[in-house]
Amino acid sequence: MNRRTLLASLAAATVCRGADSQRFFTLGQRGGRWWFITPEGTPFFSIGLNHIDPSPLRYASNGDLWERKYGNSMEKWLKEAVGPDLKAWGFNSVGWTQEVVTRGNTNHRHSRSFTFEEYQWLGMPYCHQLPFADFHQWEAETRYPDFDAPEFAEWCDYVAREHCARLKDDPKLIGYFYLDCPTWIHTTPFMQWKGPLFDPEKLKTEAGRKELHALATKWYRITHDAVRRYDKHHLILGDRYEAAKPIADEVIEAALPFVDVLSFQHFSGPDKVTANLNHWHQKTGKPVLLADHAIQTNDADGIRRHDGEGDARVLAALRQTTGCIGYHLCGAYLRNDSRKRGLRDASEKPDEAALNALTRANRETVEWMGRAK
Predict the structure, then answer these.
(1) 72-77-80 Cα angle (round to 5)
(2) Which range has highest mean pLDDT (72-81, 105-114, 126-135)?
(3) Which residues make Cβ contacts (< 8 Å) with residue 348, sequence separation at least 6?
């Protein structure tokens, strides 16, 4: 068996693992392409919004907006504002709820994940991120974990107990993400003090490549086993790899037996995005998810906005990318002072130009999805 055949067989075996229950999202091929499959058995292309956090509504400049309009209630906000907006704009899922709330050379932090109850109030299919570790490429403060230390496995078991044990029976849950852009072999200015998790110079030797494969295997095995201890069914979407940085084959190969999907962040136009997704799909046989993407434009006043037409072109190209099962927009729902980009501003004023283009593209995609058999 050659290497490509082996990788494809590993991918196929993992996908079958997620197909043991009709109560949950699974994966499958219909009409010559890959899809998520809903609990009802219909093809589903995830059109998700990332980064949903109400804290901008509580800026001092907004006065009593949060109290007056939503009565200090997450339930009221999610049911009366977020859910109706996302559905009206053509989104059919939520990708990653946490939103960046501070960023700089000393810290770069996100809001908390949604709780089980908050997902129920939102009432849409969703993905959930599990905080097993913090070697994200934007993370400035935390030392790397030791995968061999017993406390690492203990922590992973706790995370799965805290998160997966509560979410395990929810048919709206699509699957679990792990890390946001892990720094296996690359660095960013924020985390140069600790360097990459693994020295890329070692990849010049066979011994080094085996060492990285073994290290990554520990990560994916420990996290996978923790999830499956408490949730036997939901899909594992794995890490969201940064497509603009080096990605080691050894890491991907180590992930294949333990994840159901390969997920990527990629902030480029349709040609580069589809080329990247096609590369990894063809190489591994895994379905691929564009789990974080946006095309940004800047106003003359310096305000960042979505290039709605640019995002729409990427989404249209993904409909022709047969290994791709979804597109998640790097939001946010509300623009804050850290990300400085959102579909509504902090006082809830909508970005009409972006939303018109995005809504049209999302609805076209929903109609296309509805024609699938």
Answers:
(1) 135
(2) 72-81
(3) 57, 65, 81, 334
Angle at 82 between CA 324 and CA 56, to 5 degrees: 110
Residues 147-162: tens digit of each pLDDT:
999 999 999 999 999 9
User: What is d(CA 127, CA 176) in angstroms, rounded to the nearest whole number?
Assistant: 6
Tokens of 290: 């564009």
How far from 87 is each of 37, 77, 203, 312, CA to CA, in Å?
A: 19, 14, 46, 17
Asked if 335 and 341 touch (Cβ cutoff 8 Å), the reply is yes
Question: Cα separations (Å) of 95 from 160, 177, 181?
Answer: 19, 9, 15
Cβ neighbours of residue 220 under 8 Å, at least 6 residues apart?
238, 254, 255, 257, 258, 259
The string of DSSP codes covering 247-259 is --HHHHHHHTTT-
**Count of helices and strands (H, E) across the chain:** 12, 15
Highest mean pLDDT among 11-20, 272-281, 329-338: 272-281
Q: How far apart are CA 331 and CA 317, in angstroms?
A: 20
Q: 308-318 and 270-284 helices cross at what angle (nearest 10)?
A: 30
The CB density around residue 162, as the number of other CB atoms within 10 Å, is 12
Q: Is the pTM here over 0.85, yes or no? A: yes
| CA dihedral sign, ordered 210, 211, 216, 219 | positive
Q: Which residues, in sequence order, are CB contacts of 288 under 8 Å at separation 6+?
A: 261, 262, 263, 264, 277, 280, 281, 323, 324, 325
How far are the Cα atoms of 219, 270, 279 from residue 255, in angstroms, in the given order? 9, 26, 16
